[in-house]
Design goal:
The chain has 92 residues and is mainly α. The chain has helices at residues 11-39, 52-88. Keywords: Membrane, Transmembrane, Transmembrane helix.
Length: 92
């Protein structure tokens, strides 16, 4: 059985993960709000007034930004693990 090692997760990785989660949840919530509004009989004219234009644009901006954050998080995690493995290797 392998010995579980404690991984030092950096503050940057933690912040990126929470930002990613918040963007995805906000985008899904606004998408559900749009679907509920449509089911209630709202038309395109109704979505063009008030706060609705912002609600409609959140998934268009939030989800691609979440993908970018995911890629950045994966790269920073891979770099951290590579540094840890180099540090833990015995020198010859």
């Amino acid at each position: 059985m392998t010995d579980p090692q404690k991984h030092n997760v950096s503050r940057l990785e933690r912040v990126l993960a929470f930002m990613l989660l918040a963007l995805v949840l906000l985008s899904v919530a606004t998408f559900i709000a749009i679907m509920v509004g449509t089911m209630q009989g709202m038309g395109s004219d109704d979505f063009a007034s008030g706060l609705w234009p912002v609600v409609v644009m959140v998934p268009y901006i939030g989800l691609p930004l979440a993908i970018v954050l995911l890629i950045i998080l994966m790269i920073s995690s891979a770099v951290r693990r590579a540094r840890e493995s180099r540090r833990d290797q015995p020198e010859h």
